[in-house]
Amino acid sequence: MDILSFVNLIFNGLLLGGLFALTAFGLSVFAGIMRVINIAHGDFAILAAYLAFSIINFLKIDPFLSLLIVAPIMFVIGYLFQKFTINRVLPMGANQPVLVTFALSIVIQNLLLLLFTADARSLITPYLLTNIELFGLNPSPRYATGFISALIVFAAIFLFFKKTYLGKAMRAVPFDSEAAKMIGIKSDVVYNYAAGLAMLVVAIAGVLLGITFTFYPDTGPMYVLLSFGVVVMGGLGSLKGSLVGGFIMGEALVLGGFFFGSRFQLMFCYLVILIILYVKPQGLFGGRV
Amino acid sequence: MANLKNYYTYIVIALALLASLPLWVGGFLRDALILFFLYLAAAEVWGFMAKHAGIVSLGQQIFMGVGGYATAVLCMYYGFPLWVSVIIAGLLGSGLAGVLSFPLLRLRGVYFSIGTFLAAEVIRLFFNSWEFVGAGKGLIFKGAYGISTTLIYYPALALGIVSIFSVYFLYHSKLGFGLRSIGADEDAASGLGVNTFKCKALCFILASLITSLVGAVNAIHHTYLNPTSAFSISWTVSFLFVAVIGGVGTIIGPVIGSAIFVGLGYLLSQYLGLSLLLEGLVVLAILIAIPEGVWGVISRKLKLKLKQPL
Amino acid sequence: MLEINSLNVFYGDLQVLWDISLKVDKGEIATLIGPNGAGKTTLCKTIIGALPPKKGSITFMGKRIDKLSTPDIIRLGITIVPEGRRLFGNMTVMENLELGAYASETRKKIDDALEWVFNLFPVLRERQNQLAGCLSGGEQQMLAIARGLMSKPKFLILDEPSLGLAPKIVTKVYEVIERIRDEGVTVLLVEQYAGHALENSDKGFVLENGRIVIEGPSEKLLKDERVRKAYLGEE
């Protein structure tokens, strides 16, 4: 392979990394604020993709437009999920949320299987299937869209946390929830909105994933494992870290494919995550759940 | 003393009854019973690990698959007798667990759980490309042809019973005591001198031994192995569902849970995914509202005060 | 202004406060002293709504508040500066102050409150963009009190404001408390170090083992035998 093709590969890996980062943001927000790793995270993303799929088929609109409907729905789902499920089991011990989110993952997968069958699905955006040339490189338009979306969402979330009361409350509660309570912040309500926000981001990621890759009812776990890897590399709750982690994961995937073939690229990524966990059991930047 | 004698008599009668079952139930029910005991065995140890040692493994499928594949390979490629292969497969599985303990058991809480899931996926993907065992096409377990369900029933029953007794004795053993302290507060336990790594590893290895044996018997029962189903997360899902529905961490719980799980599976088998969906919803409801499970509710209503960990 | 009647508080099944009755009038600085573990912080938590009492009542400006939530109590005019300061160390001085106004009406017109607070504590204006975790002990206490003032309270509870501070800083803290009272805020001071607290307050209550054992004007308490022996280090 010549230099240019290799650089192209690396470049596309970076763009893909943006999409992975975007996918991981939701997990990072959820884990950073509620201190719970949502094992059903990937399944929620795929749920969003299927929701978009249904809306697109019903209303015949563009996938990106469908986000206008999917995103609010997912926000509400996240809010209710936190309110009636996670908030209830948080006091039951550290492993209860693990069981709950795992069970939910199975419920979502089987619900999708029943409603949509096991056929492969995809969100079609013909205008993104063209070839682009940029300074001699060929960035994949879909990866690039994911990358740009990641940056936009990152900026939006960053501003939200910095400038709004609710955003600041969301940073205060995980730091010291008792103090927050004493100055009048209701942590349960903050958690509900945080979960809604996380699912909103997951919705965007899910639609973009659905545009970029085909999906099945059981595609979710792969995305939660990769997102987990991103979060582990970047540090729990750190948005900047998720960007960096995403880029690393994207490069790992494309380089894994380059060196070991497409059959082994996913396995390579998982091994990378396991090795990082072995070397630093708390993740590259610490921060336990 | 008289009471104790009665107690043992009941157990002996129950065992004799169970052992004689294949003689008077139909073929279809025999299949169900095999599944019942296999799930029971695996769920008992899973539940013990989860509830008492605080270790939630999402990777039990590793041992189901390794147990199955090892049995088939040992039997067909190396000519070991079938049931000897099963035993060796069990040991290989627990050996693997020992090896995996080193990277995985350093992880805490949900990190461990996801770590087991990751490891399982790596192994699945590996087997999917490993020509020696047929890669994606799988392996036809010819060595298990002609083994009647009656013959398979007894190892399944044995595993169920062994698993129950293992959990019971483990709970009351010194190791079990150490594990329970770890499950309650790992840092405190470690501060008190408990070798947390050793305890968790031994527990993990024991659980994987039983699970690998379950995987071996299951492979003989199905006579066909492929990585997608052998290493599928559905195994862990099943064990989790059985344990939680029945009452996680109890001994009688998974008995009830397995009956419900296998029963529902048969009833709703035509609608792909419906049984799992329903069971998943039930599990969620239980986890949120009645964490003690069906058995917990029953024993509470009947005001039974059974000795732990029943 | 604040009236507590026969308050009984439990942690689960464990009773920690028995028949607490006390009154703080408008414009006073009252102090609650007592040994560690007597229940002073528990009482504070109960007043602010973080802990529900099993029996008894708390009335503020004529209204029953013992069944209200913390945000509602803050909106009525009571704020607490928690023991140990409990700042959000991962956020800036300004952000901590802004969160102080979160639950109250001042949230909408926060600039007035900020001005007031920066005038009381000029050092905070200087350090407004620094992380709260990087401030010195004294500065953190200033920030904690300032955060409490952001909701423009009528009644401020200070739980152990002198904890862990050098004597010079403690004096400064008490100067600030005087100033706050002069600006119209009623203060309930909770302290382990009785001397300073009694010298700077109008009336005092001694809490021991969950019960109020002595009460009266601070001047009298300073001369009281029992108080001197137990809390002022005299033989």
Helix- and strand-based class of chain C?
alpha/beta
For the largest beta sheet of chain C, what order do the strands appear in spatially? Answer: 6-7-8-3-9-10
In whole angstroms, the N-to-C terminal distance of chain A is: 43 Å
Beta-strand fraction estimate of chain C:
25-35%
Share in β-strands of chain A: under 5%
Reading off the top of the CATH hierarchy, the class of the domain at 2-86 and 155-231 in chain C is best stated as Alpha Beta
Characterization of the model:
The complex is a heterotrimer of chains A (289), B (310) and C (235). Chain A is mostly helical. Chain A has helices at 3-34, 41-59, 63-89, 96-116, 141-163, 165-175, 177-182, 187-212, 220-234, 239-260, 265-279. Chain A has one domain (3-219). Chain A contains 11 helices and no strands. In chain A, helix 2 (41-59) packs antiparallel against helix 3 (63-89), helix 2 crosses helix 9 and helix 6 packs across helix 8 (187-212). Chain A is globular and about 60 Å long. The termini of chain A are far apart. Helices cover 75% and strands 1% of the residues of chain B. Chain B contains 14 helices and 2 strands; from the N terminus they run H-H-H-H-H-E-H-H-H-H-E-H-H-H-H-H. Chain B has helices at residues 2-24, 27-51, 61-76, 82-104, 109-129, 149-172, 174-184, 186-191, 196-222, 227-230, 234-246, 252-267, 274-289, 293-301; strands at residues 139-140, 224-225. Chain B has a two-stranded antiparallel sheet with strand order 1-2. In chain B, helix 2 (27-51) crosses helix 12, helix 3 (61-76) runs antiparallel to helix 4 (82-104) and helix 7 crosses helix 9. Chain B is an all-alpha fold and 310 residues long. Chain B has a domain at 21-232. The mean pLDDT of chain B is 89. Chain C is α/β, with parallel strands linked by helices and 235 residues long. Chain C has a domain at 2-86 and 155-231: P-loop containing nucleotide triphosphate hydrolases (Rossmann fold, 3-Layer(aba) Sandwich), CATH 3.40.50.300. Helix content of chain C is 37%, strand content 26%. Chain C has helices at 40-47, 70-76, 93-100, 110-120, 122-126, 137-149, 167-182, 194-199, 218-223, 225-231, and strands at 2-11, 14-24, 29-33, 55-60, 63-64, 78-81, 155-159, 186-191, 203-208, 211-217. In chain C, the strands form 2 sheets. Chain C has a 6-stranded mixed sheet, sandwiched between helices. Chain C has a 4-stranded antiparallel sheet with strand order 2-1-4-5, with helices on one face. In chain C, strand 4 and strand 5 form a beta hairpin. The termini of chain C are far apart. The mean pLDDT of chain C is 88. The chains are: A mainly alpha (289), B mainly alpha (310), C alpha/beta (235). The interface between A and B is large, with 45 and 42 residues.
